[in-house]
Amino acid sequence: MSLLLPSRFARPRRWTPGQDVRAERVAATPPTGVSSAQDRHVVVVGGGIAGISAAVALAERGVRVTLLEAGPRLGGRVAAWPVEVPGGEPPTQGAPHDTMSRGFHAFFRQYYNLRALLRRVDPDLSGLRAIDDYPLLHGDGSRDSFASIPRQPPLNILGFVAKSPSFGLTDLARVDLDRALGLLDVDFPRTFVEYDGVSAQDLLDAVRFPPGMRHLALEVFARSFFADPREFSAGELVGMFHTYFLGSAEGLLFDVSADDFDSRWWAPLGAYLYRLGARMHVGMRVRGIDRVEGRLRVSTDGADLAAELQDVDAVVLAPDRAGLQKIVAASPDLGDEAWRAAVESQRIAPRFIVQRLWFDTPTRPGTPPFLGTAALGYLDNVSAVHLFEDGAAQWAVRNGGSVVELHAYAVPDDVDDATVTRDMRGHLDRLHPELVDAGVVHEEVIVARDCPLVGTDPWAARPGVVTPDPDVVLAGDGIRCELPVALMERAATTGFQAANHLLAGWGAAGHDLWSAPTHTRFPRATSALRAAVRTLPTRGRTGARTGEGASS
């Protein structure tokens, strides 16, 4: 007979920042001694997510912060800026609602640390809007969906495979199950190191994933890094697969910003920093860092800041990768030879193209806010911006139209921009025939190549948050991190980690962080399954799990 205890005697659920009860808390180093943080001055270079996270974490502990951003506004590569669009709201009615950015960004529910940053200015995250589904369309017409898949592992991946038209029983028979089960056997950061030198494509070839599943379920991850799967790290791919499928119960659906990033997030966070006493300077490019009588001095384009930046306790370097490399190259006093070489060797991902079109015609009913695509030429994503962003929605209502954005990631160097935009528009016409004869009221095209390439180079050799210089730390989405985080969440996480490292050295309290589980959720089940699989015929299962001997 079982005994049911009243709810008041039930063991309380451990607090977590999301739905996953196994999310891991990463406690900050406890302070020792008397804090000297309030006597310190830190310069944060870069006003993107990483720089803002570091600045907030430091300023909240009483550190005097000066933030320098080379661009004209906060946000870095997630900035938004006003554009003049016919039919837009007149400037006399307030700030312009017609904006442009570098494309949509998914705020996954696993982005615990980024969400903690945003809660500084929006405690209940009302500025994020849930997306009901993220359909994935293949060139052959097959479509996958994440809408009705359970969140809890392993039911999520089993549910996806059961419902996916891209994964049939014949395909399952071809998969190398032993290697596939290796995707379950993770322990970060060890897993990152195990896949050194192996690309995402090497891994997919070794596991023998079917083409449809490869495009729709896995290459989506690689291309979200603006990377070709042949050059993208297999360790990072496994990390993302673990975070979104096998290791986290938060699911793969996500939220989006309910309005443009600047008005919704970065301007309020800038005001929050100002209230904390931080000084911010946009349009201020850092030329270099040197030491004068043991103290750091930051050189910029602005001569009027020279006095403020000549006696600095520490520097957080959080620009984009090219910006970091330029600063380090111009700062011979920073780091040692090996570290400087590691910074210089880091690569930039191929260029990407974003084409946003303001149409005088609405999209058809049932249009998804986001559509991922595979095998449709250069087109990787279609975003119906008017279906989730308030400013675009208001423009569409006023003008009876729609705002649609097309993305092409990892564009080959030998293809010109015009070819890509024509190709994307051609596929849009096939996907949305109602727009074929629509008038284009306005068009914005962004071509950029400034994202870090997360390549197959040794994980441990990549520059991390801590540097050989105790007064200089790094942050950003291209900085090595021991946790299974990526993209915007890695930027926020390393920003907080950089601040925590400095605060610990000054005897001040840092900020606790959170991560999806860093190891397998099913260690016994995984071991048993792998042992059972090894008793099966071994044809096609030779070679190491890291892809040795794999064939396309």
Describe the structure.
Strands 9-8-16-17-18-15-19 form a 7-stranded mixed beta sheet, sandwiched between helices. The protein has a 5-stranded parallel beta sheet with strand order 11-3-2-14-20, covered by helices on one side. A 3-stranded antiparallel beta sheet has the order 6-10-7, with no helix packed on it. Helix content is 30%, strand content 17%. Among the domains are: 193 residues, FAD/NAD(P)-binding domain; 111 residues. The N terminus and C terminus are likely disordered. It is globular. The protein is an alpha/beta fold and 552 residues long. The protein contains 16 helices and 21 strands.
Helices and strands: which structural class?
A: alpha/beta
Give the CA-based shape.
globular
Q: Classify the fold: give the CATH topology of the domain at 28-76 and 260-346 and 458-514.
A: FAD/NAD(P)-binding domain
CATH class of the domain at 28-76 and 260-346 and 458-514: Alpha Beta
Low-confidence spans: 1-10, 538-552
Q: What is the helix fraction of residues, given as a range?
A: 25-40%
Tally of strands: 21
CATH architecture of the domain at 28-76 and 260-346 and 458-514: 3-Layer(bba) Sandwich
Percent range for β-strand residues? 15-25%
Round the Cα radius of gyration to an integer and report it: 24 Å
| Number of DSSP helical runs | 16
Task: Give the biggest beta sheet.
Answer: 7 strands, mixed
Terminal residue distance: 57 Å
Whole-number mean pLDDT: 88
Q: Trace the largest sheet across and list its strands.
A: 9-8-16-17-18-15-19
